[in-house]
Amino acid sequence: MLHTINKSPFVHKNLESCLRFAKKGDPIMLYEDGVYTVAAGSKIEPMVAEALKKHPIYAIEADVKARGITKVIDGVYLCDYYCFVALVEQHKVYPWF
Amino acid sequence: MLHTINKSPFVHKNLESCLRFAKKGDPIMLYEDGVYTVAAGSKIEPMVAEALKKHPIYAIEADVKARGITKVIDGVYLCDYYCFVALVEQHKVYPWF
Amino acid sequence: MGEKEKTKIMFVMRKPPHGSIYAYEGLEAILIMGAYEQEISVVFIDDGVFALKREQDTKPLGVKEFSKTFAALEDYDITNIYTDKESLETRGLTVDDLIIKPKVLEASEIAKMMEEQQVLLPF
Amino acid sequence: MGEKEKTKIMFVMRKPPHGSIYAYEGLEAILIMGAYEQEISVVFIDDGVFALKREQDTKPLGVKEFSKTFAALEDYDITNIYTDKESLETRGLTVDDLIIKPKVLEASEIAKMMEEQQVLLPF
Amino acid sequence: MKFGILIQDGPYNHEAADSAYNFIQAALERGHTIQGIFFYNDGVINATKLMEPPQDDRNISKRWSDLGAKGIDIIVCVAAAKRRGINEDVLIPNARISGLGQLTEIAIESDRLITFGS
Amino acid sequence: MKFGILIQDGPYNHEAADSAYNFIQAALERGHTIQGIFFYNDGVINATKLMEPPQDDRNISKRWSDLGAKGIDIIVCVAAAKRRGINEDVLIPNARISGLGQLTEIAIESDRLITFGS
Question: What is the CA radius of gyration of chain E?
Answer without folding.
Answer: 13
